[in-house]
Specification:
The chain is α/β, with parallel strands linked by helices. Helices cover about 50% and strands about 15% of the residues.
Length: about 270
């Protein structure tokens, strides 16, 4: 299905691909594009039948070169104005990715700067073509970045790396990105798509309850070094639920019968 022209959504089985479709503008983000991305991911969350989302940029020059300042509406509608005041579109899209119960993969087919770099770091896994470059330039334009953005990078990279990235405003090549933890994998340019979709398919073969529980628990730990009792109780209930699930029983039988399990998310 197409969601206007700035965003293309393609569903194939339990994998959904979201394409930022502005190649002539290096896939710069607009409020419309981000709000549509949020709506799509929120809808997929409700449907519950997609186990992996892949986000990429159109063509092969850029994943996303940042936020298109020129696209900010000079006379926004009352709805857009309300959205901008309550939660900025980029933050809303990143929150939708975070709340999506299953893995979201950033397929970095080109460079990712500014908001595009944060969009990538907001995904659960990042796979990069060897040609990519990434960077956060706020210091070069005199901007103190929003707290939520700093926190997102800090959660993934830690204090020292986050500090360097934001203090220098430097553009990092794929080798440096891998060393710093900005990406999980770097692959040859021509193999990026196959590698990404093979990984996505591998993930979808696993038990949905386990995927949900793993993402939920690890983010809770990463974002809250000391968990509140209610969080510990919720994580414990996920563990017990998985033990009692049909998928757990199926996984055990498949192991003993030396076959691939057929999980149903129950």
């Amino acid at each position: 299905m197409n969601v206007e022209n700035e965003l293309i959504v393609q569903k194939e089985g339990s994998i959904c691909t979201i394409v930022i479709n502005r190649p002539e503008k290096r896939n710069l983000l607009t409020p419309t594009c981000l709000l549509k991305m949020s709506e799509v991911i929120e809808e997929l969350t409700k449907e519950g039948n997609v186990l992996v989302i892949i986000i990429r940029g159109a063509e092969d020059k850029a994943f996303c070169a940042g936020y298109d300042i020129s696209a900010l509406p000079t006379k926004p509608t009352s709805q857009i104005e309300a959205d901008l005041k309550e939660t900025p579109p980029l933050e809303r899209a990143l929150q939708a990715i975070r709340k999506f119960p299953y893995p979201v993969i950033a397929m970095l087919n080109g460079y990712a700067y500014g908001g595009g770099c944060e969009l990538a770091i907001g995904c659960d896994i990042r796979i990069a073509a060897r040609r990519i470059k990434m960077g956060m330039p706020p210091a070069k334009i005199g901007l103190v970045y929003p707290y939520s953005g700093y926190r997102r990078f800090f959660t993934v990279l830690g204090f020292s790396r986050t500090l360097e990235i934001f203090l220098t405003g430097r553009k990092y090549d794929s080798r440096s990105c891998l060393q710093m933890g900005l990406v999980n994998h770097v692959v040859d340019d021509g193999t990026l798509e196959n590698f990404t979709y093979n990984l996505a398919r591998e993930i979808t073969e696993n038990a949905p309850l386990s995927l949900q529980g793993t993402k939920f628990t690890l983010y809770k730990i990463a974002e809250n070094p000391i968990l509140e009792k209610k969080d510990e109780d919720e994580i414990r209930s996920l563990f017990i639920k998985s033990l009692q699930s049909e998928d757990m029983s199926e996984g055990q039988w498949a192991f003993f019968e030396k076959r691939k399990p057929r999980f149903k998310g129950r």
